[in-house]
Amino acid sequence: xxxxxxxxxxxxxxxxxxxxxxxxxxxxxxxxxxxxxxxxxxxxxxxxxxxxxxxxxxxxxxxxxxxxxxxxxxxxxxxxxxxxxxxxxxxxxxxxxxxxxxxxxxxxxxxxxxxxxxxxxxxxxxxxxxxxxxxxxxxxxxxxxx
Length: 146
What we know:
The protein is mainly α. Helix content is 64%, strand content 8%. It has seven helices and three strands, in the order αβββαααααα. A three-stranded antiparallel beta sheet has the order 1-2-3, covered by helices on one side. α1 crosses α2 (45-61). The longest helix is centred in the first third of the chain and has 18 residues, at 2-19. The protein starts with a helix and ends with a helix. The model has no long low-confidence stretch (mean pLDDT 78).
């Protein structure tokens, strides 16, 4: 039952994360825009996304063998499943939740058969110093915000 709705949960959570950026829908407190203002209540989509990433990755790897999980071209979709919410949450800024999403995604990919070497190389590239800013992820997050 849950397997059938995993993409729906992920899609709804991703849409809610994107809606935070819409003026009037995102609620800002203490310099961070992390909540959706629904009138009677406020909702933090990053919490739903933590569950959505796990469900979406589980669904993606459900039919894959450990050998298939190691293929580099099969990493594009899982990288997007983890990367899009990571960047949206980090842009809020909510770096703690962003790191939790990224590390949880890496753990699931490892459990599916991905080598720690690939995860380490991707992490090193993402957080490596670049000429204009302190890290590549910061450059990407800055580009999204402008």
